């Protein structure tokens, strides 16, 4: 059999995602903050893109009008009669002099940073009579504290990081535990609470035993066996519990460095009469346009530079088109959700109906993956609060009449029932399921109630029970 080379034509089809298409898909799933960062980066890199100056001109006119009004006020006002005895020039000058140094500072420089637990402990340690060797040990200990203030390193591990004996390390730990906040650098919750009791002078033997040996029993509400063991009444036990609640089992949380994250909604939905109005949040979003200078320059550039210019021009045009398509898709999806979930927007979470991505995709005649991407990390402000768009898509539970109800509605009902229950006789998961079946005709199993309750972070009935 001979080998030979030959040419052959073959016709085939394949799906290719161009870089422009990949960019458009990426823009769909970006959150609002990520989108702003992406647009700002493109403004820096692409000379053909620029931000329109319409809003800037309006602001300049407003500022000019305000400055003219101030000049007129200064010219016509009778300040001497208005200020009276407070019209001293020296006082004004001194006040002005005190403002000048601050004006030269940035806004961030005028703000005091929130103290950290490490810095707070180090500051106290250096103000106390710690020796140089004790400060070296203390820095290692402070560096191994978690956000709750607990020591996460053993004495042996600390010894490997600093030249000190076990007794010296333990002595520094004991001193640090009595600084502010009291109980920091403890190894266990029991040790943390016992240190606080020692500092406060709480030396009751029953209280000491409850903290040292019976925290788990208290957590699981085993009150009656404890009352029998210590031969005290339930009222006396309650007084001990009230005293324990004055202690802080997590002394480091007040110095936590975590900051709250605020959500800026992508869409606002308002009720106007009998209809709902949808407004996209354009606040802070740059309004893009093509740079006229570079557009005019393209005709005069050399051939070797024209390819670069054309590429950047196409990239700018495609970005503007993709941003418009993203906002248009977001509006259509929210409009469809409002029509499907009108009961929610009218009355609240209890009227949330079952909804899947496919229904919205068919309604707006787009692919299901497009709906999934545009609802990722997007938030909508409604008359009942701010919700993620994914919140409106939930599974269904069957009713006895053959209809269905959304799982989020059932969760809201379960949460409401538990909030209104008798704390001394809390509702069990089985009892909640029976109430839903009898009163609301919802077919739901006990394990489903337990799953929904756990998803909402609600403890079981045995842990919710209160004996006092």
From TrEMBL:
PROSITE patterns: SIGMA54_1 (PS00717), SIGMA54_2 (PS00718), SIGMA54_3 (PS50044). Residues 107-294 form the RNA polymerase sigma factor 54 core-binding domain. GO terms for cellular component: DNA-directed RNA polymerase complex. InterPro entries: RNA_pol_sigma_54, RNA_pol_sigma_54_core-bd, RNA_pol_sigma_54_DNA-bd, RpoN_core-bd_sf. It comes from the Bacteria. Keywords: DNA-binding, DNA-directed RNA polymerase, Nucleotidyltransferase, Sigma factor, Transcription, Transcription regulation, Transferase. Residues 307-466 form the RNA polymerase sigma factor 54 DNA-binding domain. Pfam families: Sigma54_AID, Sigma54_CBD, Sigma54_DBD. GO terms for molecular function: DNA binding; DNA-binding transcription activator activity; nucleotidyltransferase activity; sigma factor activity. GO terms for biological process: DNA-templated transcription initiation. Belongs to the sigma-54 factor family. This is RNA polymerase, sigma 54 subunit, RpoN. It comes from Pseudodesulfovibrio piezophilus (strain DSM 21447 / JCM 15486 / C1TLV30). The lineage of its organism: Bacteria, Pseudomonadati, Thermodesulfobacteriota, Desulfovibrionia, Desulfovibrionales.
